[in-house]
Each structure stands twice: as C-alpha cells, then as structure tokens.
Specification:
The structure is a single chain. This protein has 306 residues and is mostly helical. 68% of the residues lie in helices and 3% in strands. The chain has 13 helices and two strands; from the N terminus they run αααααααααααββαα. It has a two-stranded antiparallel ribbon. Helix 2 runs antiparallel to helix 3 and helix 2 packs antiparallel against helix 13. The chain is globular, with a radius of gyration of 22 Å. The C terminus is likely disordered.
Length: 306
C-alpha cells in the first residue's frame, strides 16, 4: 500500500513563491491579525444592535449592517483561497478569485452607502432560489423530487412569486417565466464602484473584468493558458507571473476591506489600519509597474491614491 503524501500542492512552486514574495509573507501575519480584529469588533457591534432592535423598529440601516459585514467577512475567506492558489503557481485560478473579492467588497460598500438597497438585496434570495427550481423543471425535472421535498418546492415557489410581484415583474403567458431578469440592483457593478470609491472604479478592469474572462469559456481566457513557442504552442500548467499580480491586487482589495470595516462600524483602529496601508508600497513598488499605490483613507471609501 502506497504511503499517503504529507502535503497537497506543488512543492517547487511553493518554494519559488516564498522566495519571490518574502516581503509580503512577512507582512501577512500583521494584515491577518488586523483583519481578524476588525471582523471580531464589527461582529460585536452587530450583536449589540440585534439585542436592542425589534422587528417593528428595524430600519434600513439595521438590515444593511449584517449584510455589509457578511460580504466583507467573505472577502477574507476569498483572499485565503487566492493565496493557496497563488502559492502553488496557479495564478490564473488566483486571478479568478479576485472577481469574488472585488464584487463582494463593492457591493458591501454600496449597500453601506445606500442602506435602502439592503432590502432589495435580501429579497433577491427568493428570486434566485425560484430561478433554480424553474431551471430544474426545464432541464432535469426528475431530480426535483430527489433534491427537494414537496414542502420545500411549495415554499420556494410561493416566495418567488411574491418577490417578483413586489418587483412588478411581467411573466410570459406561454411559459410562465419572468420576462425581466434584472439583478437586485438597478445599476451595474462599475457604476456602483464609481459611487463608492474612485480607486476601486479604476481597478474594475484588472480586478473584475479580466477575471470574468478567465472564469468563462472565452478566447481571452485561453490566451492566459496557452503559450506560443517555436514550431507551435504549448499549454501552461503553471501561471506564476499571474499569481504575483493576483496577490498584489488581492492585498490592495483587503486594505480597502480594512478601511471600510474600521470606518463603517466606527471601530476606531485608525493607527493599526494606517500601519497596514503604509506597508503596501514598500512591498510592491519594485515588483510590478501595474501596482496600485495606496494610503489609508479617513473617508472609509477604501485605499486612495497619493
């Protein structure tokens, strides 16, 4: 019986990543500690609020805060996934994760700025689950009974109908499907980004649009995976240059998360946040011409250019 490996991943790629990113890896424990501290403090604030608010007294702001927190918290998990991929030379995979971080962060900041959008965001859950059920019916109807109980299906369909009625969505008389497939918000993600932070808006192409092409089956996505050589082409199994850019941009986005949590939840850890911002430029300024220079922002809109 063969012995199980003691680790998973590409050891050689890991060693190269460590050697090439020494400065970042020395900073990372401090970044991680500050992030976790702000997450804990933000969660305490929400818990205190929950104990003092009844359903009757709940405002848009009360609904928005847990959503903003949860989206920001999820970016931390995403960043951890990005580092695992990048650390094993899988830069294309790490770049794809940038989209998740960016989208969650921009959405969190937009809802924080416009708390009235929080209810629309929450109501989207019923619409999304209803769409899943309708796709089951259209594609694999036999699986419905396996994956859902009759009670589940009835509840999901009822909430789906009610949510669409509130949105005033028109239905096709022939197939019964909603004609309007719009998202929960009436503005695009880049418009949301421009409203909350100019620097996040500037990062839209590299942190959202480009990763989107990598996620989907596109010619642009193949360009990142295929390398042309003399006499033909070859498929790139590792994408270490892309891993470098993904970590740099992920670091940039996590600083925006730090700033936003600190200001939005009024935690008051300005000195700790400022220290993490000050560490960014020395780490990356000699590494890549595509860096995002940052400094801490008192406005809470995330990193701001010098």
């Amino acid at each position: 019986m063969s012995q199980l490996p003691v680790s998973v991943g590409d050891v050689s790629a890991q060693q190269r990543f460590i050697a090439a990113h020494r400065s970042f890896l020395l900073e990372f424990p401090k970044l991680k500690s500050t992030l976790e501290m702000l997450i804990d403090e933000s969660h305490k604030k929400i818990s205190e609020q929950r104990g003092n608010v009844t359903d009757a007294s709940q405002t848009d702001e009360h609904i928005a805060k847990p959503i903003v927190f949860s989206l920001a918290r999820a970016t931390y998990d995403d960043f951890s996934e990005l580092l695992v991929l990048a650390g094993n030379g899988m830069g294309v995979g790490a770049t794809k994760v940038l989209r998740s971080i960016y989208e969650r962060l921009v959405t969190a900041m937009y809802i924080a700025k416009k708390p009235s959008e929080a209810r629309l965001f929450m109501e989207q859950s019923a619409i999304e689950r209803g769409k899943i059920i309708n796709r089951y019916k259209a594609v694999v109807p036999d699986r419905l009974a396996e994956d859902f109980t009759a009670e589940n299906l009835e509840e999901i369909q009822q909430k789906f109908t009610e949510a669409n009625a509130q949105r005033k969505v028109d239905f096709c008389k022939t197939c019964g499907q909603p004609k309007n497939q719009e998202a929960w918000t009436r503005v695009s993600l880049d418009t949301m980004a421009k409203e909350v932070s100019q620097q996040l808006f500037d990062a839209y192409a590299t942190c959202y649009l480009q990763p989107t092409y990598l996620i989907h089956a596109t010619p642009t996505g193949l360009d990142f995976r295929v390398r042309f050589i003399e006499g033909g082409w070859e498929y790139k199994h590792l994408s270490e240059p892309e891993a470098h850019g993904a970590v740099m941009r992920g670091h940039f986005l996590m600083l925006a998360v730090l700033s936003h949590l600190n200001v939005y939840f009024e935690i008051g850890r300005d000195d700790e946040v400022r220290s993490r911002f000050e560490a960014f430029n020395p780490i990356w300024e000699e590494k890549s011409p595509a860096r995002h220079p940052v400094s801490s922002s008192s406005s809470g809109s995330g990193p701001a250019k010098h």
